[in-house]
Design goal:
Its main location: nucleus. By secondary structure, the protein is α+β, with helices and mostly antiparallel strands. The protein contains 32 helices and 14 strands.
């Protein structure tokens, strides 16, 4: 019933889909009210009784809506457009899902055709011949094997629209055919009649380990398997040359990026210790292969540390593991001198500055050396002791009920430090202001200058407000709109290029701090993963605040002439953000200008010069969501790094892969899915290949920096609409 109500609102034009969907979906789709329906000042259902009557009316109308179940037709425009975006869509689906998708579409088309055939039994239905159909009278079979095969799905859709019949093929015959196709390329490793590893034969893209052999151009990549067997295959595939072949390097990176999905860090540590210390490997092992196997494990551990950096400091299992394996290397280096290179690498990683020769690890001197090593200060393992004190968050200091100043500060910041920033932002004397913690139950507590201003529990229990002090030191809150009326429009006097540069610098500091693993946690651990996605959350929050900042600045500007200048200035800033390859702020500014409370300002937009309207139209086209944001993706690919992507869209891509593919298939890890997720996550690495500099090197602008770092925003859509109707009332 609830979905029916939303569908009714969509059909009536009260709601509109950002992605132009015709049918309501309640997950991962964005909707907005039409501009004419967003007026809170003229709401006909303002009183509770009228609101209930309105809801009853909607419920009465819902049964009159035609049922949407089973509808799989798309508009002609959508069908035509799908040819352009099909490769991108299929790239996010594993081969197993592709086959299932084709089967479902064929089944739906067959049921639809048979139902129509029963109603129109006198009508002759032509059976269309298609590829892979041996008998024209037997219908067709749609089968997907490769990612670029979505054309077959489009063919099925086309045949369904032409009322063609789809006859079910013999299941055993189909399974036999699929088995014949797969037996050459797929290898299944079994233990006790159970699959433990599935590999796919693919053409190698890099140097093969055995040059000149018949198999040198082919490799086996992991499709699915148990965690232990995937790790074992990875270690077997590693070789100890300076440069790994592309497939092995990718497999190693995929595994390290996504292992937390299917095993704990403790499980990985124990498995690596078993592989390092095993007396035999796969039942038999020559003595010369022992150091080779140990070096492979150490190489994997080195890559793991290099990828995760300080993340491993926070895990007790990994810290204990590194101590243990370091002791093992000390034990083995005398017997296997070839391990000395790996030992030095470990000492470098762990921050142990003293170096030793092989002789120092002889049985007579080993205990002394071991004692000395662990009597040193282990810088690497102790580095993160005060991580919570230096952690940065956005502190929202509310001026009124619906407006706040966003202050990026460390958890250890004092109330005096925060108050100094807010006083400068709202242009009041610091001595006349005070910070007050207000709980949602109404309790108030004044923060003293040396008090810690930020508490992680405060967000859940209340807010921080800035109050004025009168002559008797009585605290009084700011009245609604009182503070905003006193603000001067400082942004009009700022250089747009320099302002865009400061936005880029701020966004880059947030973006460069995001660990690739945060995207994995965000996707797979939607609940309780805040501590693992702190940097990612900051950048997403910043994007939302920039959008609100644009609307706030425009709607707080009452004079029409200055408001027109402000809109022109924001259009120029958006263009500069694009030129500086900061797509996160670019999207936020364009969306802020397109906010319903701003876009309805017809008097303002009428006075915008034609060249600015044309520029804004060009910028808007880059944010067009059609064809899965094709315009943005094409433009972003052409940009050279360093660059800042639009993070919400990157997260949408990862989520699409996750939701569209199962993580486990027949109790095996679906590693094909994890490879696609890791490949998308590696976008961060590509974007951060270089550092910003050269033609866009920043200049020192303290005032600009302070302005950009501490944005003043109104976070209530209702308050924004009230401002919008106040400066340009509805005619």
């Amino acid at each position: 019933m609830a979905i029916g109500v939303w569908q009714l609102l969509l059909d009536m034009g009260i709601l509109s889909s950002v992605d132009q969907h015709l049918y309501f979906q309640d997950t991962y789709v964005f909707y907005q009210f039409s501009s004419e329906e967003c007026s809170y000042l003229y709401c006909e259902f303002e009183r509770e009784e009228e609101w209930q009557n309105g809801v009853r009316l909607l419920l009465q109308l819902v049964p009159l809506i035609p049922s949407r179940a089973g509808i799989c037709e798309l508009s002609h425009q959508k069908i035509e457009d799908s040819e352009e975006s099909s490769d991108e869509i299929l790239a996010r689906l594993t081969s197993a899902v592709q086959r299932e998708l084709a089967a479902v579409i064929a089944l739906k088309a067959r049921k639809s055709a048979l139902a129509q055939d029963e109603e129109n039994s006198d009508k002759h239905v032509t059976v269309t011949e298609a590829e892979a159909a041996a008998d024209p009278q037997a219908g067709m079979m749609c089968k997907l094997q490769e990612r670029d095969d979505i054309g077959r799905i489009e063919l099925v859709q086309k045949l369904a629209r032409e009322s063609c019949q789809f006859l079910q093929t013999d299941k055993k015959e189909q399974e036999k055919s699929e088995h014949q196709d797969d037996e050459v390329t797929m290898v299944e490793v079994k233990e006790q009649d159970q699959n433990v590893l599935v590999l796919k034969k693919v053409q190698s893209c890099g140097p093969a380990p055995q040059a000149g052999s018949a198999e040198s151009d082919w490799r086996y990549v992991v499709v699915s398997g148990t965690p232990e067997k995937i790790l074992e295959h990875l270690l077997n595939d590693l070789h100890l040359e300076e440069v790994q072949d592309k497939e092995t390097e990718t497999l190693l990176d995929d595994f390290l990026l996504t292992y937390t999905v299917f095993m704990t860090t403790d499980d990985l540590c124990q498995a690596l210790l078993r592989h390092y210390s095993a007396k035999k490997y796969q039942g038999k092992e020559e003595n010369s292969d022992v150091p080779c196997r140990k070096r492979k494990v150490l190489h994997l551990v080195s890559q793991w540390i290099a990828l995760y950096k300080d993340w491993l400091h926070e895990d007790e299992h990994s810290k204990m593991f590194l101590k243990t394996i370091y002791r093992n290397v000390l034990d083995d280096v005398y017997e296997y001198p070839i391990l000395e290179k790996e030992l030095k690498e470990f000492q470098k990683i762990l921050g142990m500055h003293r170096r030793h020769t092989v002789d120092e690890y002889s049985p007579q001197r080993k205990n002394k050396a071991l004692f000395h090593q662990f009597s040193l200060k282990e810088n690497w393992l102790q580095h993160r002791g005060a991580v919570t004190e230096s952690e940065e968050i956005f502190c929202h200091v509310y001026i009124t009920e619906h407006s706040y100043v966003s202050v990026k500060a460390t958890v250890s910041s004092t109330a005096q430090e925060i108050l100094r920033v807010v006083a400068e932002k709202i242009q009041h004397a610091e001595d006349d202001l005070a910070l007050v913690a207000v709980t949602f139950s109404g309790e108030k507590h004044e923060l003293q200058p040396n008090n810690l201003a930020i508490s992680k529990s405060l967000d859940a229990s209340g807010r921080i407000y800035v109050y004025r002090k009168d002559l008797a030191d009585t605290l009084n809150p700011f009245a609604e709109n009182e503070e905003s009326q006193q603000r001067s429009i400082r942004i009009l006097g700022m250089n747009t290029w320099d302002l865009a540069l400061e936005l880029m610098n701020f966004d880059w500091s947030l973006f460069s701090s995001i660990h690739e693993q945060e995207l994995i946690y965000f996707t797979f651990s939607r609940q309780g993963s805040g501590e693992h996605t702190a940097n990612l959350s900051l950048l997403l929050q910043r994007c939302n605040e920039v959008q609100l900042w644009v609307a706030t600045e425009i709607l707080l500007c009452s004079p029409l002439g200055k408001r027109v200048q402000l809109v022109k200035k924001f259009i120029k800033i958006a263009a500069h953000c694009k030129a500086q390859r900061n797509l996160n702020s670019f999207f936020a500014i364009v969306m802020g200008l397109n906010t319903a409370s701003v876009s309805r300002l017809s008097q303002t937009w009428e006075k915008i010069p034609g060249k600015f309207k044309k520029l804004f139209s060009e910028l808007e086209s880059l944010t067009d969501p059609s064809l899965n944001h094709k315009a943005y993706r094409d433009a972003f690919k052409k940009m050279k790094p360093p660059k800042i992507p639009f993070m919400p869209l990157l997260l949408k891509d990862v989520t699409f892969i996750h939701e569209g593919n199962k993580t486990f298939l027949d109790n095996l890890v679906n590693f094909e899915k994890l490879h696609m997720i890791a490949d998308t996550v590696r976008t961060l690495r590509h974007c951060r290949t270089n550092q910003f500099g050269g033609d866009i090197s920043p200049k020192e602008h303290p005032e600009l920096k302070s302005y950009v770092h501490h944005l003043y925003v109104i976070d209530s859509q209702q308050a924004l609409f009230e401002l919008s109707h106040r400066i340009e009332p509805r005619v």
